[in-house]
Design a protein that fits this description.
Chain A: InterPro entries: SoxD (IPR006279), SoxD_sf (IPR038561). The complex is a heterodimer. In chain A, 18% of the residues lie in helices and 35% in strands. By secondary structure, chain A is of the alpha+beta class. Chain B is an alpha+beta fold. Chain B is built from 23 helices and 52 strands. In chain B, the strands form 14 sheets. In chain B, strands 8, 9, 12, 13, 14, 15 and 30 form a 7-stranded mixed beta sheet that branches. In chain B, helix 5 runs parallel beside helix 9 and helix 7 runs parallel beside helix 8. Classes of the chains: A alpha+beta, B alpha+beta. Chains A and B meet through helix 1 and helix 2 of A and helix 18 and helix 22 of B.
């Protein structure tokens, strides 16, 4: 597969490490009430959709960017690639 | 030396270049341009192999990579390669070939007895018969079956050849250089596009080289040669003969194997890889892979000499050879008649053309039998005669040495299926054509797309190239097409001859017969995928290229469905077998992974160190001295020297991450379970890192060199994983923090200097303006200093051994000089270098956890660090450490163990049981994680996890090692065998 890195252009997927669902960006507040349940859900309850999937890839053999790749898991078509830090900032990263 | 008795005139071979080769020890000659198969045929050899299951004598049936029968071992000694198809082996001088799966000889194969038992050995036989008793499968049945049913054998030696890998990019990849591929390449090449044209054959042209045909008034082979010459002159076109595109992967990426030197004698290979594995990234691709002919099943249609009619014609026209002086043809289409015509023209006697169709006429001088069928074949080791049921019902026998059979042609759709393609049935040619979703950017032209005539192949190749380039915004015009044949072959589907009791072979490679398919149907294995697995139809090296459709046709008939409803099995990569060596490329032996050397590696080599692989690193394991004959002597000496005076160990392999920025402390507070916000500048703190699920991931130290500057260390093994997690936290969770990270593992050479005299040693190294006295530089201090008269360095007062100890770091390029300076300064104190083994003994004696304890299954509570996890702040993993199972007060706890019998070693991995318990999983109470002989304690000791271990100090239990059948008694003790109060660290 080829991943179109927002900074570096198309790169071979072998340069990347795959993590999983991009919902990992939405880490709960560990100091809030109900944190145990929130972390359980955050860590273990994932959707497993066919079709489009937003997922985290790490450019480990490259510039060490974490990317959010929107990929159709049926066809492997890559629809969008974003810097995870941009997405996290735009979501209003929380302490 | 045998004569080339079956050599004809003409052909695309150079008989002036005589090549010598051997087959099963006999010497033969062939010509330049021959394949091993064509050279054997020219020498009158028809028997080339034994079948997989029944050990039936077999000859070749094809002239291409689809060959199921003529599998041979090529080369000798370590170079021997089994299961090589003689039809694709390019002949060279000195080639050595041997038959396989036959003993003692090809002509007399003892296991041919299997053939007599064939009534029992039908499909599913193994599944049904060897079910019981179950234990016999592994020990008896499988080894016996594997020995009798099999292909070639490996040399059992390391592959001495070298392989290479490469990357290519192009606008248009054209797969196959027959009429469609050549026309497409001319079209795209002239338009200036970056083109790769790949073909598995060594000669471009495909069927153009195998036919007697005219293109624009010249022979089809000449036209192909001219087209290739023009393509060769175009700098934007890369021609790749001997290159099999074996797989179509995501995003227009293809795998191809180029056989670089397989066709050269050993003397000409010097310096070149045997094969190159190419990864081709193509913006568009055009599959022009042609079609594969299929057999008609009839009784004993596997006799050596029975072959595909198109192959018979290719051998005559391209390779100037015939499998016999008298031949016959059995065909359900006009294409088979071309074989008869061309062989007659070459002076071969065609004794009969048998055609089940009624409405057909001869196209040359040969006896034609319409409405007839071949119902049997005689000649176990080579065809002698065929018997034919004529249209009037009479039986007639023809003496012949070869029979060409044509049941029609199957488009080569394989690569179209490698993603999500589903071939669709095409009635006109009674075959599957590409269908469904093809790999991104792929289109198909020529016979592979069902365009079966030369004219339609040329046309679709040109049009396919124009369309593919248009998609890239490159305009191209289709050249004027050469005039070429455009007549249909008038196929009348005919799959197998009903008459005859003997077996009718569908899949030659797996010995599957019409009867086997019927049996599969009878037993309910009716879906094509079940049929495939039950009978093994279409498996192994040929992937059913000839046989799949024959099996499907029989199944369709049994179920009363059309073949289009029956469906087809899918093709997967690789298209043809790929050598493991090619996939490995240069990543073999020492190059399998990178080797990292520590800064003191060469110095340690000079000291005679014994090294150990630690991940990618090579680390000194111990430093034997004169007179030491056992590793324990060296290790015990090193350990005692550290406890008594001082030792030096290279710890550069530990991961080092530089963390800088105004928010660095807040960042560390998030990644470590314990608090870091209040760590003072000039201080170091032990830190525990968790995974978000509450399991301990790694431990290390963080040293605060400045308000906004920390140095984090990790274990050697987890350096990559920790850095990845830190970047994840920085980029994905807290991009608002102003903090930057960089790995500096390779930038610093770092040495542990440990032992009671370590300070005295270092005072000789550290520049005098830096006070490293106990008062000026107490336990857990850190500082940026200079050493040896101005060299910048970092000093940390941390200890892994439990002794007064430091770690000193200098830029890596000074690493070797530094170890020499340290050892010279330490000479008066009896300083020793120590390796990883002593390092490990020292830390076990001190009770420090390491990789064996941080194994991805352990929680802070288990490690005795439950209280380190701060509840006053949020940190990765903190919340879930409080889960019941991870914080259970009655759960496993890290404790120490000492052997009751000092003579009996403890073994890491041993499981723990109460003293009188039976040793079963239900009674299991934990395990030993790390074990060593402690020279300090004078007995074997260990660390391990024990249920309620912290509440059981003093109890005697047993450690069982069922792998070695030993059980020893141990006493549960504190994990801190040395200086539990930590006084030695602080002096």
């Amino acid at each position: 597969m080829l991943i179109n890195h927002p900074l570096l252009g198309p790169r071979d997927a072998q340069e990347f490490t795959y993590l999983g669902d991009a919902s990992l960006l939405n880490r709960p507040d560990g100091m809030a009430g109900g944190a145990a349940q929130a972390f359980h859900d955050y860590l273990y309850l994932r959707d497993n959709p066919t079709g489009e999937h937003r997922e985290l890839w790490y450019h480990e053999q490259g510039d060490r960017s974490w990317l959010i790749v929107t990929r159709n898991v049926s066809t492997h078509e890559i629809l969008k690639v974003e810097l995870a830090s941009d997405v996290a900032l735009s979501q209003g990263a929380k302490p | 030396m045998s004569e080339q008795t079956n050599r004809l005139s003409g052909g695309l071979i150079d008989t002036s270049k005589s090549l010598q080769f051997t087959f099963d020890g006999r010497s033969f000659t062939g010509a330049q341009g021959d394949t091993l198969a064509s050279a054997l045929l020219a020498n009158g050899i028809r028997l080339m192999g034994r079948s997989f299951k029944y050990h039936r004598p077999r000859g070749l049936i094809s002239a291409g990579s689809e060959e199921p029968n003529a599998l041979m071992e090529i080369g000798t000694g370590a170079y021997r390669e089994p299961n090589t198809r003689a039809t694709v082996v390019e002949l060279f001088d000195g080639l050595t070939a041997n038959s396989q799966n036959a003993w003692p000889s090809l002509k007399f194969d003892a296991l041919g007895v299997n053939d007599l038992a064939s009534n029992f050995l039908t499909a599913g036989f193994y599944y049904k018969t060897f079910m019981w008793p179950r234990a016999f499968w592994e020990k008896l049945y499988e080894p016996v079956i594997r020995r009798s049913a099999g292909l070639g054998s490996l040399s059992m030696q390391a592959d001495p050849d070298s392989y290479d890998k490469g990357f290519l990019h192009c606008d248009l990849l054209i797969i196959g250089a027959g009429p469609a591929g050549l026309m497409a390449a001319l079209t795209a090449g002239r338009a200036g596009a970056k083109v790769i044209l790949a073909d598995e054959d060594f000669l471009f042209g495909g069927r153009l080289n195998a036919e007697v045909e005219e293109l624009d008034g010249q022979s089809s082979a000449d036209w192909a040669a001219r087209a290739v010459a023009e393509l060769r002159s175009l700098p934007n076109v890369r021609l790749m003969p001997r290159s099999t595109v074996y797989g179509a992967f995501d995003h227009g990426i293809f795998g191809a194997v180029e056989r670089v030197t397989d066709h050269l004698p050993a003397t000409a290979k010097a310096g070149l890889p045997r094969q190159t594995l190419w990864r081709i990234t193509a913006r568009q691709s055009l599959l022009c892979a042609g079609a594969t002919e299929r057999m008609i099943a009839f009784a004993n249609n596997d006799r050596p000499g029975v072959m595909l009619a198109g192959a018979m014609r290719a051998y005559a026209n391209r390779w100037a050879t015939t499998a016999g002086k008298r031949v016959a043809v059995f065909t359900n289409n006009d294409d088979g008649h071309r074989t008869a015509r061309d062989l007659v023209a070459k002076g071969v006697q065609v004794v009969a053309v048998i055609d089940p169709r009624e409405n057909v006429r001869a196209i040359a001088e040969y006896p034609l039998f319409k409405g007839a069928q071949v119902v049997g074949a005689k000649g176990r080791l080579g065809l002698k005669s065929i018997s034919t049921r004529l249209s009037d019902g009479s039986l007639k026998s023809f003496e012949c040495e070869a029979l060409g059979v044509s049941g029609g042609w199957n488009p080569n759709v394989s690569l179209t299926c490698h993603q999500r393609g589903r071939p669709t049935w095409h009635d006109d040619i009674a075959a599957f054509v590409p269908g469904g979703t093809l790999p991104v950017g792929m289109s198909v032209a020529g016979a592979a797309n069902g365009d079966m005539t030369t004219h339609s192949a040329l046309q679709s190749g040109a049009e396919g190239a124009v369309a593919a380039l248009l998609a890239l915004g490159i305009s191209a015009t289709a050249p004027e097409l050469p005039r070429a044949d455009d007549t249909s072959i008038n196929l009348q589907p005919f799959w197998y001859v009903a008459e005859g009791k003997s077996r009718k072979w569908i899949d030659f490679q797996n010995d599957v017969t019409v009867k086997d398919v019927k049996l599969a149907h009878q037993e309910g294995f009716r879906s094509v995928e079940h049929l495939k697995r039950y009978t093994t139809l279409g498996m192994a090296t040929d992937q059913g290229k000839n046989s799949n459709l024959g099996g499907l046709a029989v199944m369709a008939e049994m179920t009363g469905q059309a073949i289009s409803q029956t469906g087809t099995t899918m093709f997967r990569p690789p298209y043809t077998p790929v050598a493991m060596g090619a996939l490995a490329g240069r990543s073999v032996g020492k190059e399998f992974k990178p080797t990292r050397l520590t800064p003191s590696h060469h110095w340690a080599e000079r000291q005679g160190a014994v090294f150990v692989e630690v991940g990618q690193w090579m680390r000194a394991q111990w430093f034997p001295q004169a007179g030491e004959t056992h590793w324990r002597q060296s290790v015990d000496r090193e350990v005692l020297a550290v406890r008594k005076s001082v030792g030096v160990c290279d710890v550069s392999t530990l991961g080092k991450v530089d963390v800088q920025g105004p928010d660095a402390a807040e960042f560390l507070n998030l990644i470590y379970a314990n608090g870091f916000a209040k760590l003072a500048v000039g201080k170091t703190r032990y830190g525990l890192m968790l995974r978000e699920d509450g399991i301990a991931m790694d431990d290390g130290t963080a040293a605060r060199l400045a308000e906004d500057h920390f140095v984090v260390t990790t274990t050697t093994a987890k350096a990559g994983q920790v850095y990845r997690q830190m970047e994840f936290v920085r980029q994905c969770l807290r991009p608002d923090l102003d903090v930057q990270l960089i790995s500096t593992t390779d930038a610093w050479a770092q040495y542990a200097v440990a032992g009671p005299t370590s300070r005295l040693l270092l005072q000789k190294i550290v520049d005098p303006e830096f006070d490293i006295s106990n008062g000026g530089f107490p336990f857990m201090s850190c500082a940026e200093i200079t050493v040896c008269g101005g060299l910048r360095a970092r000093l940390f007062r941390i200890s892994f051994s439990g002794e007064l100890a430091y770690e000193i770091a200098v830029p890596t390029r000074y690493g070797e000089a530094m170890i020499e300076a340290l050892m010279a300064a330490g000479e008066e104190f009896g300083a020793v270098p120590y390796g990883t083994e002593a390092l490990s003994v020292l830390r076990i004696e001190k009770g420090h956890p390491a990789g064996n304890e941080l194994n991805g299954q352990t929680s802070p509570a288990m490690l005795g660090m439950g209280r380190m996890v701060s509840t006053k702040k949020d940190s990765i993993g903190a919340v879930l450490t409080r889960r019941e199972v991870l914080s259970d007060p009655d759960g496993l706890r890290l404790v120490g163990f000492e052997a009751l019998d000092a003579e009996k070693p403890l073994c890491a991995g041993s499981h723990l049981f109460a003293k009188d318990a039976i040793e079963t999983a239900a009674q299991d109470q934990g395990w030993l994680t790390s074990a060593a002989y402690s020279p300090h304690m004078g007995k074997p000791i260990a660390l391990g996890f024990l249920k309620r271990g912290d509440q059981r100090l003093g109890e005697v239990i047993k450690a069982a090692n069922p792998l070695e059948g030993s059980t020893v008694q141990v006493r549960v003790v504190s994990p801190h065998f040395v200086d539990p109060e930590g006084g030695r660290l602080r002096v």
